[in-house]
Amino acid sequence: MLSKCTWAVLGLTCHIELFTQAHYRQSIDPDGELSELYKDVFLFHWKEESQHAILDELEWQREDAKLSDPQRDQAVTDLIELVAAVDGILQMQSAADVDYFLRVCGRVFSGKEVQQLRDQPITTRVQRRRRCAAICAAVIMPRFALSALTIA
Questions:
Q1: Which residues of the chain have pLDDT under 50?
Q2: Which pTM was predicted?
């Protein structure tokens, strides 16, 4: 991350703040079975992230104004590389989730079953869900799209 330009880091930061907001709105707020205290904690986190997103968006625009077209092209490449790095982290987390499941599920799996869990649909589904939650959710949000279009 330290080797990437400020524009890309600000873009990724704004993206992360927006997807945490999307996560709250899509999965926590509408869930009537969650405790009110739990929901309140995440509501206040959502409010804080909303303030951060506004400030980061303004800073991202300020940084964008400094860039030439070739610098902006490189900045977009840097942002894509940062998102790919996040995707790599999500893949590692998915594998760790499978390992955790194997430890706590209450039964012993054969070597073949373990390999199937690691290689087959459950791991792929976990990875896809994480990707959707962490990468796609913010990118498809109108606010992120508007920011990116306004900047670029």
A1: none
A2: 0.69
Residue 14's alpha-carbon distances to 43, 46, 56, 110, in angstroms, are 18, 13, 6, 44
| CA–CA dist 50, 99 (Å, integer) | 34
Altogether, the residues listed in the chain come to a count of 152
Structure tokens at 58: 């303004």
- Give alpha helix (H) positions in 25-119: 36-65, 69-104, 111-119
Q: For 47-53, which contacts have Cβ atoms below 8 Å and span 24 or more sequence positions? A: 49/17, 49/20, 49/21, 50/17, 50/21, 52/17, 53/14, 53/17, 53/18, 53/21, 53/143
Angstrom distance (rounded) from CA 144 to CA 34? 28
Q: What is the pLDDT of residue 127?
A: 64
Nearest Cα to Cα of residue 14 among 44, 50, 48, 43: 50
Q: Give CB contacts under 8 A, 24+ apart, made by 136-144.
A: 137/18, 137/19, 137/22, 137/23, 137/26, 138/15, 138/16, 138/18, 138/19, 138/22, 139/15, 141/18, 141/19, 141/22, 143/18, 143/53, 143/57, 144/14, 144/15, 144/18
For residue 76, what are its two tokens? 């977009």
Tell me what pLDDT residue 84 has.
Answer: 86
